[in-house]
Hints:
Blueprint: E1 9-15, E2 18-23, E3 26-32, E4 41-57, E5 60-76, E6 78-92, H1 96-108, E7 114-117, H2 121-126, E8 135-139, H3 144-153, E9 159-164, E10 169-174, E11 182-186, H4 191-202, H5 214-238, H6 244-257
Parallel strand pairs: 4-7, 7-8
Antiparallel strand pairs: 1-2, 2-3, 3-9, 4-5, 5-6, 8-11, 9-10, 10-11
Helix pairs in contact: 5-6
Amino acid sequence: MFMVLSLFASKALIFGRRTLVIRDMGVSNFIKLNMNSVHSFKLSLAAVDGSLHEVYTREGVLSYVVGARVDFTLEGERLKFSSYDVKDDLVEGQGDEAMRRLEYELANSSNAEVVLMDRKLTMDAEKGYSVPKRAIGIVKDFDPKVRAQLDDTFNEYPWLLVEKEGELTTGYFKLNRVSWVFRVETNFKNSEEVLSLLYVCGNYPIPEALGYNYPLFVADKVVKLFRNRMQRAVELGVGKTLKYREFRSLIEQHRAKNSGWRF
């Protein structure tokens, strides 16, 4: 294993595939995936994401929120689509919390062996949400200075830097030279397995975010597809400054009209 150290990491102690990195902010474990021993997976997994659209009425802001769960099977390095489920709701005011609630309802009702979420699990746990067993949360947006420092520090791929271990383990990962650095939070106990799973699910060309998780990418597209269909249905009414009950009636009509719709 070869490693480049910068000001971000002051000392490294190497133990097999794990490297103990002593940084200014503490000690981290650096894990490099052995490409000759990538885990051979045979499991079910679910990817969960959410989206929302805000509408202004005479009574104030209304939010149409939608959550989607897309189910896959993974055999070896091959992902196969199984099914999907969508939930939506209409709430008064900002919709962020309602969207979070829908996502966790979908995640915790899943029978999948692994649940992938586009969420910061530590923050959600602090808010009282129950994190599913064997969950992996991937965060695209975090401190750009940290991303740049990590990008400049390690030049062997794929890697996972375990920042903190505990009930929820946190860290960062990068899958190849041109991919992004992402933050990861998980309740998996085996970090090597996490990195292997991230590698298998991220080995797809996603132009918007190279190295991102493909199942979560699909879930994002599904949830936005449903959101956009409803958004187009209500945009004509937005200019009329709908009352709350008028807007809800419009939503219910559109739901009934498209109850059998599939993509």
